[in-house]
Amino acid sequence: MGTASTLVQIQPPTYGNLITILSIDGGGIRGIIPATILEYLESQLQELDGEDARLADYFDVIAGTSTGGLVAAMLTAPNENGRPLFAAKDIKPFYLEHSPKIFPQKKGVLGSMRNNLKLLVGPKYDGKYLHKIVREKLGETRLHQTLTHVVIPTFDIKHLQPTIFSTFEVKKDHYLDARLSDICISTSAAPTYLPAYHFMNQDDEGNVREFNLIDGGVAANNPALVAISQVTKQIFDENPYFFPTKPMDYGRFLVISIGTGSSKVELKYNANMASKWGVLGWLLHGGSTPLVDVFTQASADMVDFHNSVVFQALHSEENYVRIQEDTLTGTDASVDISTKENLDKLVKIGERLLKKPVSRVNLKTGLSEEVKNGGHKRGDLEKVCKIAFKMKGDSEHRNR
Questions:
Q1: Pair 200, 210: CB distance under 8 Å
Q2: How far apart are the C-alpha atoms of 126 and 130, rounded to whole Å?
Q3: Where do the structural domains in the chain lie, given as residue ranges?
Q4: What long-range pairs does 314-317 form, CB within 8 A, spacing at least 24?
Q5: Terminal CA-to-CA distance of the chain, rounded, Å?
Q6: pLDDT of 78-131, one tens digit each?
Q7: Most buried residue, 29, 62, 171, 270, by CB count within 10 Å?
Q8: Annotated catalytic sites, by residue?
Q9: pLDDT of 166-192, one tens digit each?
C-alpha cells in the first residue's frame, strides 16, 4: 500500500484566492440528480478550459456522503495517466447501468411482501453487487492518492461516533489511508437497506485499525459543513495550503452543495400517524422507512440552515450555492426503486432542476424559495465556473 509518509502533495487549484468546495448529499439512486447537475457543471468548465477539464481541477475539496461519497471518489480517483478516473458525464450512465443490480426489484404483490418480510430479519439488499462493482472500478486506490482533497463521512457503529475519511487528516492519522472502495462501501451502508461493513487497515508502521461502519448519512447526509470544518481546522493549524485565510473569513469560501431531492411537499407523515407507530411502523410505512427519511433529511437540512445563516450573516451569501429539489413524490423520493421508468424520471428531474430559478432556503418553512431577479440555477453554476476558472488561471500565472 501507499503510505501517508510518501504522499504526493495535492496542489491547491486556487492557491489562496478562494477555497472551493463541492459537496454531494446521500440519497441512493437519487444520486442521478446530482450526477446530472455535475455533468452540466463540468461541461461549462470544459467550454472555458477545453474538453480535458475535470471538476477535480477546480475544487480544493470534494465531499460526499453515501451515494455522494461514491461520486466524490469516482471524480477524484486517478486513472493510469494521473487524470480523474471518471468524467462527470460518466456518472449518470454508471447509475443507470448498475442501480438495477445493486437494488434488484422483486415484482408484484408477493415480491413486495417478501421485501417487507426480509426487512424484519436483515437488510433489504445483500450489497454483494455493490461491493463487487465498487472494488472493480476503484481497485487498490487509497485515500491519499485522490487528485484533490476528499472528505467522506461514515459512522462507526461500534464506537457510536462519526469516522471522517479526509485527505487532510490522513497525513497525521495514517490509519485512515484506506482503500477508496472500502470507504465507499462503508459510507453507503444505509441501515435497513444494506449491511454494515467491517474492514481492517494497516498503517505504514504496522499498526492495524478495525472499522465497523455504516452510512455516513446518519451523521452528515449533507457533508458541506463537515468539509468546511475540515478546512477551518487546517486554517487553525496554519496549513500553508490555505494561507492567508482566517477561520471566519467566509468571503474566501465558494461552496456548491448539491442535494439528491426530498419529498417535503408530499407531507406523507403526520403526528397522528406517527403517534401510533411502534418499532415496525418507524421502519416500514407505505413502502418507505420513516426513521431513515427523518434522520437523513434532518441532518441535511440542519447543515443547509447553518450555512445559509452564517453566509448571510457574514455578507457572503453569494458564495454559498445550494441546489436541491423539494418536490419529489411517490417513487421519485425512493432511494432504491431502480426500475427503468423511475431511473429515467430521476434524470428528467435533474434536467428540470437546472432550469429552475435560483432559490434559497426559507429558515421558517424549510422550503426553498425563489430569489428575486436571481436568474436560473444554470446561471448560478455558470457564474461559479467563471470564478473557479479565473482563480485557476490567476494561480497558474503567478506560479509560472
A1: yes
A2: 9
A3: 19-399
A4: 314/248, 314/250, 314/251, 315/251, 316/250, 316/251, 316/253, 317/360
A5: 34
A6: 999 999 999 999 999 999 999 999 999 877 666 666 666 666 678 999 999 999
A7: 62
A8: 66, 215
A9: 999 998 889 999 999 999 999 999 999
CA distance 122 to 115: 10
For residue 334 the three cell numbers come to: 425512493
- Is pLDDT of 378 > 80? no
At 374 the pLDDT is 60
The angle formed by the CA atoms of residues 281, 285 and 288, to the nearest 5 degrees, is: 125
User: What is the pTM assigned to this prediction?
Assistant: 0.89
Distances (CA, A) of 397 to 79, 90, 148, 394, 400: 27, 31, 20, 5, 6
Residue 323, C-alpha cell as written in the block:
441546489
The model's pLDDT over 245-302, given as tens digits with 9 standing for 90+, comes to 666 677 788 999 999 998 887 788 899 999 999 988 888 887 788 888 888 888 888 9
Which amino acid, one-letter code, is at 340?
A: K
Protein fold of 19-399: Cytosolic phospholipase A2 catalytic domain (3.40.1090)
